[in-house]
Batch of 2 targets.
Target 1
Amino acid sequence: MSEIRFFALGGLGENGKNMYVVDVDRQYFILDAGLKYPTQELYGVDEIIPNYKMLTNIKDRIKGIFLTHAHEDHIGALPHILKDLNVPIYATPFTMEIVKDTLKEKNFDLKDLTLYTIDKNSIIRSGNVKITFFSTTHSIPESVGIAIHTIDGVIVYTSDFTFAQMGDPKYQTDFSKINEIAQKNVIALLPESLGSTFVQDGGIQNALNHKINSVYANAEGRIIVSLFSSDLQKIQKIIDISLNHHKKIAIIGRRAQRIVDIAIQKGYLVIPEESLVNLKFIDEKNKNDANNLVCLVTGSRHEPFYMLQRMCKKQDRLIHICHKDTILIMTSPVPGTEKMAARTLDVLYRSDADIQVIDKRLLASNHATAEEIKMMINLLNPKYIIPTIGEYRHQYGVKQLAMQLGYEENRIFLLDNGDSVNFSDKKETYVSKSEIKTGDILIDGTAVGDVNDYVMRDRELLAADGVLMIVANINPKTKKVIGNVEIISKGFVYINEDQSMMDEIRTIFDSITLKHLDGKYINWNEFKLQVRDEVSKYIYQTTRRRPITIPVIISTELKS
C-alpha cells in the first residue's frame, strides 16, 4: 500500500483560509489556497492566509495547487504563496480567469508561472497517482470536486457544493462522474461542513424566486439590490427576473469588482446589451431615478453595506436613495461585518424607502445541507470521513450525520489545522495531533509575515489605552538633562487637563535620572527600562490603564 497522509494548513475549525494537502508517497497535492478576512479586533490587518512556510522545504515534491472554484476563501492566498512556491496551478477556465486577473494586479508576469486550465474530463498524472475532477453546483460557475486516485483507492475532496438542480450546464453536478468514482474504493471523503447544521426542505429556490418576484411586483420606483460580487448565480437570477419585469439594469461597482466584469466579458453572466444601462453622475438634469431601473450594488464583505450607506446619506455620485425606492437586501452579513450590516439597516430605515431583507435561510443555499451531505456520503460510500471547510461545530455536525448513516466513530476524523491522518497497510489508520506547524500569516499592506503576535498586541494596547512618550536630551559628559523633559500623550489623557499627573511623571523621571547619572558610566538600556517600568507602574496605580510607554532618551553633547 502507498503511504498516504492528509492534513490541513487552514480551513478546519474556522470559516475561510481553506488549504488542504494530500501526500502520496512523498508527492504533495495541494487542494485550494484561500484567505479569510479579519474580525474587528485585528487592527490594520487586511487579510489572513495559512502559514504555508513548511511547504517551502518540500517545494520540489509539490505536484501542483488544484483549485475548486473562484471564491477568495479558496484562491485568495495564491498571490502570496506563489512568491515562495512557483508550482503548477490547475483550475477551470472561469477560475483561471479570476486567478490571472488577481496575479496581474499583484504585478506577476504570467509567463513565469505554470498555469494549466482543466475541465471536468481532464486527467492529471503524476507517478502512480491520477487526479480527476467532477463538476459540482455552487454559487459560482465551473466549480469542481477533486478525486486523487492512488493504487489503493481514491481520496475525494468535494469543496463547496449543493445538489440543487440547475438548467445551466456551468452549474450542474456531474452525477455520472461521482458514480464512476464510487466504483473505485473511496478511502476517504473530505466533504464541506458549513451547511451541516441546516436542515432544509426542497423548494428553497422557488421560495426565493417567489419572494423576489413579489418585491418587484409591488415596487413603485427604482429597485436597488445588494449582492455579493462572488455570488454570480444570484446576480444572474436578479438579472433574469429584472428582464421578465421589463426593467433596465445598472451594475454599480462593476469595474471595481473585477469578478463581475470578467463574468460579463466572458459570457458567464448573460445580460442583453440593450437592457444594460451605464449611469452618469448625478447633476441638476440627471437624477438616475427612472421607475424601470434596477441597480445592482455589488461588492465583497462590507462593500455593499458601505455603498448603501453612502447612497442614503446622499454622498454617492450615482444613486441617492429616496422614499420611492425599494431596497432589496440579498447580502446576509459574513463574519466580521455584522456590526456594519446592522448599522446599514438602521441608516436605510431612516430613508423612508421600502426595505426588503431576504431571510438568511433563503440565501444560505450555496452550501450542502444535512441531507445533501448524507447523499454525498451514500453516493461515494467512503471508508473514512474527514469533514473540511468549517468551524468545529460544523465538522461535528458532519460527524453526527455520518453516524446516522451507520458509520462508527473511529471512521470519522475531526481534525484541527496541523493534525494529520495517516493511511497505511502496516498499521491501523491513525491521527498525529499537531504534527504540522500551522498558523496564520497576517497580511498588512504588502508585507507577508511582518505582522506577528507582538505587533497585534501593541495595536490592541494602542487602541485600548494609547501611548505615552517621555522625551529628554542628556549630555553624557556633564551628566545633566538639557532643556525640559517633554511628555507626549496620544489616545491616553489630554495633557493640559491633567497637569498633576504629568508633574508626577516628571518627578519619577528626575529621580531615576539622578540615580543613573550618578555612576561612572551610563547604562542607557537599563536607564530606559527603569523609566518605562516605574512610569507604567505609577500610571496603572493611578488610572488602571496601561498605555504603551516609550522613553526617548537622546544623548546630546552641546558644543561650546
Target 2
Amino acid sequence: MPTRFLCLLAALVSLSGNLSAQGPVPPVAKQVAHISVWHGEKVNDPWFWLREKSNPEVTAYLNAENAYTAAMTEGLKPFTEALYQEMLGRLKQTDLSVPTRRGAFYYYARTEEGKQYPIQCRRRAAKDGAYDGQAPEAVLLDQNELAKGLKFLSLGGFSVSDDDRTLLFTTDVTGYRQYRLFAKDLATGNLSGPLAERVTSMAWSADSHHLFFVTEDAVTKRSNQLWRLDLQGGSPERLFEEKDELYQMDLSRTKDRKYLLLHLQSTDTWETRYLPSDAPLGAFQVFLAREKGHKYDLEHRGGLFYIRTNRGAKNFRLVTAPVATPAPEHWTELVPPRPDVLLEGVEPFRDFLVVREKSRGLDRFRIYDAGAKTWREVAFPESVYAAFPGGTPEFTATAFRLNYQSMVTPASIYDCDMASGRQTLLKQTEVLGGYDRAHYVTERLWAPARDGVKVPLSVVYKKGLKRDGRAPLFLYGYGSYGIGMAPTFSSPRLSLLDRGVVYVIAHIRGGNELGEGWHDDGMLMKKMNTFTDFIDAAEFLVQEKWTAPERLVIEGGSAGGLLMGAVTNLRPDLFKAVHAAVPFVDVMNTELDATLPGTVEEWLEWGNPHEKAAFDYMRAYSPYDNLAKQAYPAILVTTSLNDSQVMYWEPAKYVAKLRTLKTDRNPLLLKIKMDPAGHGGASGRYDALKDKAFETVWMLGQVGITK
C-alpha cells in the first residue's frame, strides 16, 4: 500500500477520533481543482474527486466521516438501543399475510421471529375454491436462505407460470438495483440461472415456457431492451431496443392474462405495444404511436381495450375500443374528464370494473357493474386516510381487495363485495403493546402558499396536545415526479407521538395529490414552487402555534433530500434540525452528465441544463451550488455507497463543501453504509429498524428529548 495513502488514512482516523476542547474534530476532505465549462463559464469543483469510488483516498475519507459520526453520537447509544427495542416491541415478528388466490393455489408470505426476510409460500385451494389452512404448505422461496452469507438481498420480480409449475424471480445482492433472473422448478426445487443479468421486468406467456423480460443499459441503467426466452431450450432473443434516451420500458400482462403489454414511457409521453399471450412467437403491435404530450395505458376485458388517456383530459379519462378497431375514432367514453379528480388506475374483472381515483388529496375507489351499468363508490370512515389496491389476481373475482389505513389506523386488508359494496375486514396489522387509536388524532390542514394556492397538510398527534408553540414538530416532504405522499400508518412513528411530537406531511407541489396540474406546477421551470410550498407550510405551522422554529425538525429523502438542501439554503433560520436521506443535492453536475443513471430521461422532469434558460433556473436552486457562508441547522445526511439512484458522492460532496462554509457550531454528520445497501438503505427488517431508531433518536435529541 503506498506510503502516501497510509499517512492520509492515519491522519483522517486521527482527526475523526481525537477530542478537542469542543469534542471530536470533523474530517476535512482535500480540495483538488476540477474545472468544468458551463455555458462558457469556468466552474471549479474541488470536491469532484470524491466520485472516484475505487480510489482508496475516497474510501478513507468516507470511513473517517463514519468514525466522526460515531464519535459525535456515542452518547446516543443507550437511547438508540432502548428506542429500537421499543419500536421492535410493537411488531408482531412472527406473522402471516392474507392469502391471495391465483389459480389453483393461495399465495402468502410469512415472517419468523429473528429472521430478517419473509418466506414466500403457497397452499392448494380447497375443491370449492376456499382457502384451506390445513393443506400442505409449499415454500416457494425462503429469502433468509437466499441471503445466507450476504449483507444485502433485494427480491425484485416474483412470478409463477400459468401452469403453476415454475417460479421466476430476480435478486439484487449489492444495493445497486442490478437484478439477476432465476427460475425454480416448483416440483423438484431445482434452481436455474442466472438466466439473464440486469433484468427490470418480466412476464410469462400463456404456454408457461416462453418468458419475456426487459433489461437495462449497463451504464445508464435505462430499461431499453426486450427479450424472449424459451425455457424448454434456446437462448434469449432480443426483440426490440428503445433508442430514444428519454424513454424507459416496462413489461406487464393484462388482468385477464390475454395480452402482454410493453410500456414505453417518458415523463410526458407514453406508448404501449401488445401481444396476445397465447401467441408468444408473434410480434408486438403498437396500440397508438407516441405523440408528444399524450399519456395512455391499457387494460383488456371482454374483447375491449380499456384506455386511460389524457387526450382531452388533463387528469385522464377512461375510454374503450374494440380490439379489432382500436383507433381513436372508435373510442367510447366510459369515465369523462373531471378537473378536480385524477383517474389513477383501472382494474377490470369479468363482471365489474374498479377505477382508482384521487380527489383533494384523498384516495377513492369506484366500482362499475358491467351488467347493470351502474357505479358505486367505496365508502371510508375517516376524513384523512390512504387506500390502495390490495392485490386481486383472479379476473373472475367478485370481491375487490384493498388496503385501507390512516395515520392512526394500522394497515387493514378488506375484501369489498363488488355487487353490494359490503366490506369484510380480513386482517389489521397488529400493533403490540396495547396501542389504542383513540389516544391519537389525525386531521387535514390547508396552508396558504405565497401565491395564494392552498397546500394540504396531513397531521397526527397525541390527544391532549396544547397548541401554544412549544410542541416539537416533525415535518416531512417530497414533492417530485408526480408521486403523492400518502398519509399512512407507521408504528415506529408512535415513538415520536408518545413523546409529544406532532408529525406532519406537507403535500407540496410536484406530487399528484391535487391532480396532474399539481405535478406540473412543481417541475421544470416551476420547480421553485416545491421549495416555497414547504417553507410556507412550515411558517404556517409556526404562525398557528403548532410549533416554533427552535422545535421544528424536517426530513426528506432522494428528491425529498433535494428539497431539504434547497429549503435549508433558503431559510436556515426556520428549522432546528434536518435529516437529508440519500439526497439529490448535486443537481448541476448530475444533470449535465448523460452517462449517469437516470439523467437523460429526467430532463423532462427537471429540465435540460444544456439549454441556457433551464440551466440558469436549475442552478438557482441546486443545493450544492447554493451553499453559502451562513449559519445552518443541525444536519444529518445518510446514504449508501452502492446507491444507484443518487450516487454516494452527492451527499459526500455536499457535506465536505458545507463544512468549509457553515458559520455555526451545529452538528453536520454524514453516515454512509459502506457495506452493500441500496437507495432505501438496509434490506433486512431488523437492520432497517435499527437505522430508523438511530435517525429518530438523533432528531429527538435536537429538540431536547433524550429518553
